[in-house]
Amino acid sequence: MTINVPPIKCQGIKTKLVEWIKDHSTLENTGTWIEPFMGSGVVGFNMRPNRAVFADVNPHIINFYNAIKQGKITAGIAKEFLEKEGAQLKATGEEHYYAVRERFNKEGEPLDMLFLNRACFNGVMRFNQKGNFNVPFGHKPERFAKAYVTKIANQIKYVSQATSQYDWQFICADFRQTISSASEGDFIYCDPPYIGRHVDYFNSWSENDEQELYELLSTTPAKFILSTWHSNKYRSNPAIEKYAYRFTILTREHFYHVGAKEENRNPMLEAIVLNYNPLPQFELQLEKQLALFEKSHKPQFVLYSQRM
Ligand SMILES: C[S@@+](CC[C@H](N)C(=O)[O-])C[C@H]1O[C@@H](n2cnc3c(N)ncnc32)[C@H](O)[C@@H]1O
Questions:
Q1: Of 106, 184, 274, 284, which is the most buried if we count CB atoms within 10 A?
Q2: What is the dihedral of CA 223, 230, 228, 256, to 10 degrees?
Q3: Structure confidence at residue 307 (pLDDT)
């Protein structure tokens, strides 16, 4: 499967897991794809649903995609903007980067966010306690070379075309509101921040949020997939045993690269939690698990592992 990469990047982006999620999701023709933690949008965009609600508490993400949907940002407009700003970056380096950052933190212009997101250190989005973008310069004054600008313009073109072809809404909302709006036949894909891992102004995530998320998902009439981490070399995700045990859990190994050294490649077992049984061949295993559950009165724990 060719994955279409979106024009903005964020922490915890699921580009590498899209295919796995797609293989296990199931959206009815008449249903709405509901994504309460859209981030970059890479998962839902690649599902290409006819109807979708993409939500996030970060207003800058939502403004950016609404600007594309409304035609205020097109591939041509972004190209022209990045060429102009890129030339200034080439001329004055970090001085220009920090001038754009200051301008963005005053005015919140979506094109400035695109520039910062693609020129900052590690290509992430991080906001401080005042809600200001605070990622330092990525130290590449020649960042916006012709080929790179064309690549970004094509990523925008892809989203522009999709928003005019499909009924996609972008809303700034807390997950509680978004999940409560789901009906039977809809499909919810949840990718919340991982506790303690992606912490910033729009990504603060507490034990209470985690608990409320599972409570809401337990009562939704829609089907859902929730992405989370299962375990790494040092510890396991306590939420799996605490809240996710009653659902189907699939795991898959994923490597996060921290630095260049081989020993810093940390294998992480990623999990998806589902409120349905995704594949018929799992039926038998599930029945066995249920029989065990009835015998032991222990929580049902259905875990299927897949290796990449
Ligand atoms: C791990 S990222 C999602 C990444 C996304 N799946 C991707 O592949 O790009 C989590 C997102 O949740 C958003 N978020 C954090 N707290 C939220 C809340 N209470 N309600 C809605 N969105 C929230 C953050 O702004 C962030 O964009």
A1: 274
A2: -140
A3: 40
Cβ burial 38-67 (10 Å sphere, 16+ → b, else e): bbbbbbbbbbebebbbbbbbbebbbbbbbb
Q: Given this model, what pLDDT does residue 198 score? A: 65
- Distance from Cα 176 to the centre of ligand 1, integer Å: 13
Q: Is ligand 1 within 6 A of the CB of residue 191?
A: yes
Residues 38-82 pLDDT 10s: 999 999 999 999 999 999 999 999 999 999 999 999 999 999 999
Q: pLDDT tens for residues 32-45?
A: 999 999 999 999 99
CATH top-level class for 15-57+176-306? alpha beta
Residue nearest to atom 27 of ligand 1 (CA): 39
190 within ligand 1 shell (Cβ under 6 A)? no
Name the residue of 203, 209, 270 whose CB sits within 8 Å of the most ligand 1 atoms, as the mutation to test its pocket: 203
What fold, for 69-160? Adenine-specific Methyltransferase; domain 2 (1.10.1020)
More confident residue, 157 or 292: 157
| Cβ of residue 229 lying under 6 Å from some atom of ligand 1 | no
Q: Find tokens 């789901």 and name the residue.
A: 182
Cβ of residue 160 lying under 6 Å from some atom of ligand 1: no
Q: Ligand 1 pocket check: which of 10, 170, 270 to mutate, most ligand atoms within 8 Å of Cβ?
A: 10
